[in-house]
């Protein structure tokens, strides 16, 4: 994959089937339900509908269900990955892997629970030497739940199984 960045003109929405074309994640770790708006090369807004049926609520915490902060960060990272792939004008294949490089200034402002809709806003701050840096915020009802700066890199998975017959 190259670091080419598509022209930042297209805006569009994505449903779950289109999201699955950009992310390898599946239940229970697919944490983006819909992309509301994309400005290629610049920013994206997506949502995660949080339901009581989420697997993590069985243990976190049954008496007062709270979405784990690490999963809110993961939801923002998945949103960032969609933006990056769309910006590069590529869809990942079975060898594509997005790795965290760093998380800076993460702050958790309010709990998120069943019935909430997590709205994730991610903006590309820069791309340099294969490292993407984003400003990410997730909110519920217009109130920030978590924010931070995410850094990721996209690599080919060197441990991917060889194709049949090779």
UniProtKB/TrEMBL annotation:
- Assigned keywords, A-Z: Cytoplasm, Lipid A biosynthesis, Lipid biosynthesis, Lipid metabolism, Lyase
| GO MF annotation terms | (3R)-hydroxyacyl-[acyl-carrier-protein] dehydratase activity
> Any keyword Transport?
no
Kind of enzyme, top EC level?
Answer: lyase
EC number in record: 4.2.1.59
Family classification? Belongs to the thioester dehydratase family. FabZ subfamily.
What is the protein's known function? Involved in unsaturated fatty acids biosynthesis. Catalyzes the dehydration of short chain beta-hydroxyacyl-ACPs and long chain saturated and unsaturated beta-hydroxyacyl-ACPs.
According to UniProt, the name of this protein is: 3-hydroxyacyl-[acyl-carrier-protein] dehydratase FabZ
